[in-house]
Amino acid sequence: MIVQKGDKVNLDYELRDQNGEKVNLSEVEGKILLSYHPLAFTSVCTDQMRDLEIYHDELEKRGVTAFGMSVDAHPSKAVWGLSIGVKKTPLLADFNPKGVVAEELGIYIEKAGISARANVLIENGVVIWSKEYDKPERPDMKEVLEAIDNL
């Protein structure tokens, strides 16, 4: 079950982005949005990550750093990110160990080896908003912005 508002989560994980750069989530200041998608190179996941890119500046204005997340390896995230035009939004590989952050958030589907589709907003290691979506459902970024504005 996905983490809920008020749950504390461990973010002391070092992940690689699509450029191979290491990112430690616990060192990111302010609010962070972890936007999980099941797998790269799929249509709804592509739209979800493009939406993060489109809303990048709106999220930043609200003090939110957004990360596109999946259990794909960072080299595949690099090729995919380039192919879909994602440049400003870091695409993090929750790959080694596979799904460790997704598991922390309660969205890792071990049997399938993927994560659920979800958005989790965190501040100072505490969940302040979360939502899990059906696999074919594209998250509505206006809903995410509204949730941020209503905090």
In total, how many beta strands?
Answer: 9
Q: Total helix count?
A: 5
Strand order of the largest sheet: 5-4-3-8-9
- The secondary structure category is alpha/beta
Strand content: 25-35%
Task: Give the % helix.
Answer: 25-40%
Structure description:
There is one protein chain. By secondary structure, the protein is α/β, with parallel strands linked by helices. Helices cover 28% and strands 27% of the residues. It is globular and about 35 Å long. The mean pLDDT is 96.
Which terms would index this structure?
5-stranded mixed sheet; single chain; alpha/beta; 9 strands; 151 residues
How would you summarize this macromolecular structure in one to three sentences?
With 151 residues, the chain is α/β, with parallel strands linked by helices. 28% of the residues lie in helices and 27% in strands.
